[in-house]
Specification:
This protein has 698 residues and is an alpha/beta fold. It has 24 helices and 21 strands.
């Protein structure tokens, strides 16, 4: 019999219960007992869903009050020494101090989890780091899962090589691979404790196998798993986000008992693995998309799995491609979703149900009714007139190389801009958004409930804009922003004003800590029916003699931070978005706005994991930005990027040809700015010196 399991489940709760509990605790409105109780309830709810769906394993160890990498640093006792915390005595206040900073110490660095919009906290290692004593919480949660369910419990760990790779070195001339033996000893001790608890299988995530690894890091797998093979439970090595086939001949020599493959992002790797798979190994086939929300074509997936099941029998496990952390919890929370499009979608709970259907069908149970329903939904989406727009497609077909070029080179443009804007030598500005106050949120909620008219809502937002402008004037800023009081989210706000987008009420996904985002769904061809920001920006400019920035979200970020249609190339969708943003730029110029910021914080995030795939992505992503930013020479185009490693793609960033780029440099200790300097970045640059996620003043 084939088996079914998941790699992880969303931790935030159906109604963002974890978010609200965390923030209440941080505000001292709730105690630690309340927060722990919320965590217990969410874990039990998550396990019960897996148990009710008759999955063969209940996955645990995937919960975190803030972040899984921070969890592992606490679990192994390798905390940044600058905080002075003792890992075995770490309480939740200390745990959150690591993530959010203190009056004396900046927070741990935060960066993107591979090519997702999830942010993890980067553990800091040096030659004095030890892995000899950490928290007990994680093991307590495993014991809790064993007590709760009659199913087999499968804990999940980030693998030792991936953990070490994702950490950072804080000393010069120090190789963190030198710490591998001590780290492996810590993993071995932990796995031994799991075996003593009766655990039979442990999922060990090694997502770095989707990267192009240096040979010394590949050798680290041999060293690590040779040690971990002794006296531990069976190990399922989990890879995801890209193919691991290049390393198949090395991986099959490791003393593990199975491999998980992402067959959504990298389906072509399957044949290589079927040929290489050792005789007794399990193959976990990740055939349900763990990163997008489209319903699975069950008939097609069954056709893929059936011959594999004939070959492997009970050694076939069926799973999502990766953890379901990256999708919303449940469609049941959506009470007002478009009824035409709803059947096309599957969130985490629906994906678990798809998993149940697939496994039952593979094992001989008649699931024809469920499979027919999925096929009907797939066909309805494919044939829907709402998906395809002839005007948009003709406009895309008409794009030419000159469609992505400004009128003059930067050296000419910047002189015209300096003459027109008359800014000082070192201008000051903010990135754009002011805090969303209680009053702003209350007004938005009242307006959404139709308890406030549009005119009154507009009046309240303009009061907030006046306040934001007055604050900046009093502080002496040179380039002002309107504060974005009227905006709910930098992607959602624009998506609500574009055709081809769908919005959920509760489709929340964790970005980091208590920060949740509600990615919109791009289901069809995208176009802008009317101006989106012009009236508000024109009003803000009327309040000041200083330049007011028009604030837009760029096409790549609109793409990356949405759930994107999977029936056409992402590059085409990006060009559709670029044209919509370009239309807005033109209208802002007509309204007299001379500085326009087109934010692209997700530009680096979209980079493929394999370097040989980079150039194709960079070509179309750069082209999309340039199309969106075509403006008059006198109009200064800004862009903003944050929380990513940019040094390896600086030529592409320069090719975007923004007049000014602003970057985050606070958490990264100015390292990014050093990289731009060494590269001799040709245009203007603004380093961001305040960490907006910490109350600490630098």
């Amino acid at each position: 019999m084939a088996k079914a399991h998941i790699l992880g489940y969303p931790r935030i709760g159906p109604q963002r219960e974890l978010k609200f509990a965390l923030e209440a605790f941080w505000r001292n409105e709730a105690d630690e007992a309340f927060l722990q109780k919320t965590g217990d309830e969410l874990r039990i709810l998550n396990w019960s869903k897996q148990s009710s769906a008759a999955l063969d394993f209940v996955t645990c160890g995937d919960f975190a009050f803030y972040d899984q990498m921070l969890n592992h640093a606490a679990l192994f006792g390798c905390l940044p020494t600058r905080f002075g915390f003792q890992a075995p005595k770490l309480d939740l206040r200390d745990y959150f101090a690591l993530a959010r900073g203190t009056a004396s110490q900046p927070a741990m660095e935060m960066t993107k989890w591979f090519d997702t919009n999830y942010h993890y906290l980067v553990p800091e290692l040096d030659r004095h780091t030890r892995f000899d004593g950490g928290i007990q919480w994680w093991l307590d949660e495993v014991a809790q899962a064993i007590k709760f369910t009659a199913n087999q419990v499968k804990p999940v760990l980030i693998g030792p090589v991936s953990f070490l790779w994702l950490c950072k070195s804080t000393q010069a001339n120090f190789d963190r691979l030198d710490l591998l033996p001590a780290l492996i000893d810590a993993y071995a001790r932990l796995l031994g404790k799991l075996k003593a608890l009766g655990i039979q299988w442990v999922q060990v995530d090694e997502p770095v196998l989707a990267l192009e690894l240096p040979s010394v890091w590949l050798d680290a797998f041999d060293t690590a798993y040779e040690r971990l093979a002794k006296g531990t439970p069976k190990l399922l090595l989990a890879t995801y986000f890209d193919s691991a086939a290049d390393y198949a001949n090395r991986i099959i020599r490791l003393p593990v008992q199975g491999i998980h493959l992402d067959l959504v992002r990298a389906p072509a790797q399957l044949n290589a693995w079927l040929k290489a798979l050792p005789e007794k190994w399990v193959l976990s086939a990740g055939v349900i998309d763990g990163r997008n929300i489209w319903r699975n074509d069950l008939e097609r997936t069954l056709a893929l799995l059936t011959p594999i099941h004939k070959q492997l029998g009970e050694r076939l496990w069926i799973a999502p491609s990766c953890s379901l952390l990256h999708v919303p919890v449940s469609l049941e929370c959506e009470t007002a979703l478009d009824e035409d499009i709803r059947p096309w979608l599957a969130f985490a709970d629906e994906k678990i149900e798809e998993l149940r259907i697939l496994c039952a069908a593979i094992n001989g149970k008649d699931m024809g009714k469920e499979i027919d329903a999925a096929s009907a939904a797939i066909a309805a989406r494919r044939n829907s007139r709402r998906v395809h727009n002839d005007t948009v497609q003709r406009r895309i077909a008409g794009l030419k190389p000159e469609s992505a070029r400004r009128g003059a080179p930067f050296a000419v443009r910047i002189e015209k801009q300096r003459k027109a804007l008359k800014l000082p030598l070192l201008p000051t500005t903010t990135i754009g958004s002011f805090p969303q106050t209680t009053e702003i949120r209350a007004a938005r909620a009242t307006y959404k409930r139709a308890e406030m008219g549009a005119a009154e809502y507009l009046k309240k937002m303009r009061v907030e804009i006046q306040r934001a402008v007055a604050i900046q004037e009093s502080l002496g800023f040179d380039v002002l922003v309107h504060g974005e009081a009227e905006r709910n989210d930098m992607v959602e706000y624009f998506g609500e004003r574009l055709y081809g987008y769908l919005f959920t009420a509760n489709g929340w996904v964790q970005s980091y800590g208590s920060r949740c985002v509600k990615p919109p769904v791009i289901y069809g061809d995208v176009f802008r029916p009317e101006p989106m920001t012009v009236d508000t920006t024109r009003y803000a400019q009327s309040l000041t003699e200083k330049p007011m920035k028009g604030m837009l979200t760029g096409p790549v970020t609109m793409l990356q931070w949405s759930f994107v249609r999977d029936d056409q190339a992402r590059a085409i969708t990006a060009m559709q978005l670029a044209l919509a943003i370009r239309d807005e730029v033109t209208d802002l110029e007509r309204a007299g706005i001379r500085i326009i910021q087109i934010d692209e914080p997700a530009f680096r995030e979209g980079l493929p994991l394999k370097r040989h795939d980079w150039q194709d992505y960079l070509d179309w992503a750069t082209c999309a930005f340039r199309i969106s930013s075509v403006a008059q020479d006198e109009t200064q185009i800004h862009t903003h990027m944050c929380y990513s490693e940019f040094n390896d793609i600086l030529p592409a960033i320069a090719a975007m040809d923004a007049d000014v780029i602003t970057i985050e440099t606070s958490r990264s200790h100015m390292e990014l700015l050093d990289g731009f300097g060494q590269f001799h970045y040709p245009n203007e640059i603004g380093p961001g010196v305040y960490d907006i996620h910490s109350p600490r003043v630098p």
